[in-house]
Automatic annotation (TrEMBL):
It catalyses: adenosine 3',5'-bisphosphate + H2O = AMP + phosphate; 3'-phosphoadenylyl sulfate + H2O = adenosine 5'-phosphosulfate + phosphate; 1D-myo-inositol 1,3,4-trisphosphate + H2O = 1D-myo-inositol 3,4-bisphosphate + phosphate; adenosine 2',5'-bisphosphate + H2O = AMP + phosphate. Mg(2+) binds at E73, D116, L118, D119, D246. Belongs to the inositol monophosphatase superfamily. InterPro entries: CysQ/Inositol_MonoPase, Inositol_monoP_metal-BS, Inositol_monophosphatase-like, Inositol_monophosphatase_CS. This is 3'(2'),5'-bisphosphate nucleotidase 1. The keyword Hydrolase applies. The gene is BPNT1_5.
Length: 308
C-alpha cells in the first residue's frame, strides 16, 4: 500500500512521523538543559535542538526519498545520526487519502522539501515553548502544495507523556488535518507579528493598518496557526528576515484552509530549488474570509520603498 500511494501523499505521511520524532528530540534537549547556543548572525541563534532536529528530519526523509531535493535551515552536517532518530514509517491515514488529479503524477525531481527544524528559536531559548514549531513544507515546481507543522509543546502545561504536542497538515486540493480550523471574529482586526525581530518599518506597517490588537509572538509557523485557529486576522511582517523554510509549510496549510500568503506587494513566493532563500518582500498572510487586498492597499509607502 505504502509504495503504491502517490508521491505527494507518501511525502506528507513520512514528514508527519519525522516531525513527531524531531519534536521529542527538541523536548529532550530542553529537559537536559544544555542548549549549545551558537550565534549565526545578529539576532539569529541556533541551538543543539535546531541542529539535532534537522539531522533527524533530513536523514529520515532522504533515506526514503533519495532523489528529492531537501533544503534545511541549518545546512548540512557530517555528524553521525543516532539510529533511533531515523524514522522511515508513514502516517497510515494520509496514505489512504484521495489525491487530486493534478498531484497524481508528481515526480521526484519536481519536488523540493523545505525544512525548518525549529521555528521560533529565540523563544525556545527564552522558555516560551508553545511558540516553537517544526516545519516541513513540500513544493512541487514553484508552488507550496503540502505542509506539516508540529507543535512539540502543545498542551505541555496540562498534558503528560505522550499527550504533549500535536501535528497539523495540509495538502492543496485535499484539505487539512490535526486541528480544527476556525474563522477569526468579525468586526475586529487582530494582527500577529514578530516579537523578536521588529524594526521601524515592521512597526510602520502595523501602525498604518490600525489593528484593534497586536499579538507579538515567535515563529512563522505559530503565527500562521493563529490565523487558522481564528485568533488573528492577519500576519504582517514588513521585513526581509523570514526564509522559504519559514513559509513553505505554513503557506500550504493556510491555503488549504482558504487563506492567503504573499509578500508585501501581493506576489506569491516561489519554492523551486533554484530560488533564493530569503523572503525579501516580507510576509503578509491572511485568514480565510479576510480581504488580502485591503491589507496590501493600506500598507504605507515606506514598506514598498524598503522591501524589494
Ligand atoms: N531579522 C532576522 N534575522 C534572522 N532571522 C529572522 C529575522 N527575522 C525573522 N527571522 C526568522 O524568521 C522566523 C520567524 O521570525 P519571528 O519569530 O521573529 O516572527 C524565525 O525563524 P527561526 O526561529 O526558525 O530562525 C526567525 O529567525
Ligand atoms: Mg533560525
Ligand atoms: Mg523559522
Ligand atoms: Mg528555524
Amino acid at each position: 500500500m505504502a509504495q503504491s500511494a502517490p508521491l505527494i501523499l507518501r511525502l506528507v505521511a513520512s514528514s508527519i512521523t519525522a516531525v513527531n520524532r524531531a519534536g521529542k528530540i527538541i523536548r529532550d534537549i530542553m529537559n537536559e538543559g544544555d542548549l549549545g547556543i551558537v550565534e549565526k548572525g545578529k539576532n539569529d541563534l541556533q541551538t543543539e535542538a535546531d541542529r539535532s532536529a534537522q539531522r533527524c528530519i533530513v536523514t529520515s526523509l532522504s533515506r526514503q526519498f533519495p532523489s528529492v531535493t531537501i533544503i534545511g535551515e541549518e545546512g548540512p552536517s557530517n555528524c553521525e545520526v543516532p539510529a533511533d532518530w531515523v524514522v522511515t514509517d508513514s502516517d497510515p491515514q494520509i496514505l489512504q487519502l484521495t489525491c487530486p488529479k493534478e498531484l497524481l503524477d508528481v515526480k521526484d525531481h519536481e519536488v523540493v522539501i523545505w525544512v525548518d527544524p525549529l521555528d521560533g528559536t529565540s523563544e525556545y531559548t527564552q522558555g516560551l515553548l508553545d511558540h516553537v514549531t517544526v516545519l516541513v513544507g513540500i513544493a512541487v515546481g514553484d508552488r507550496a502544495v503540502g505542509g506539516v507543522i508540529h507543535q512539540p509543546y502543545y498542551n505541555y502545561k496540562s498534558a503528560s507523556g505522550d499527550d504533549v504536542g500535536r501535528t497539523l497538515w495540509g495538502i492543496t486540493g485535499i484539505g487539512t488535518g490535526g486541528f480544527n480550523p476556525q474563522l477569526p471574529p468579525e468586526g475586529k482586526r487582530i494582527i500577529t507579528t514578530t516579537r523578536s525581530h521588529s524594526n521601524t518599518v515592521v512597526q510602520a506597517a502595523l501602525d498604518a493598518l490600525q489593528p484593534d490588537e497586536i499579538l507579538r509572538v515567535g515563529g512563522a509557523g505559530h503565527k500562521v496557526m493563529l490565523l487558522m485557529e481564528g485568533k488573528a486576522h492577519a500576519y504582517v511582517f514588513a521585513s526581509a528576515g523570514c526564509k522559504r523554510w519559514d513559509t513553505c509549510a505554513p503557506e500550504a496549510i493556510l491555503v488549504a484552509t482558504g487563506g492567503c500568503l504573499t509578500d508585501m506587494h501581493g506576489n506569491k513566493y516561489c519554492y523551486n530549488k533554484d530560488t533564493c532563500h530569503q523572503n525579501v518582500g516580507g510576509v503578509l498572510a491572511t485568514a480565510k474570509g479576510q480581504d488580502h487586498g485591503w491589507y496590501l492597499r493600506n500598507l504605507p509607502d515606506t514598506v514598498h520603498q524598503t522591501l524589494v
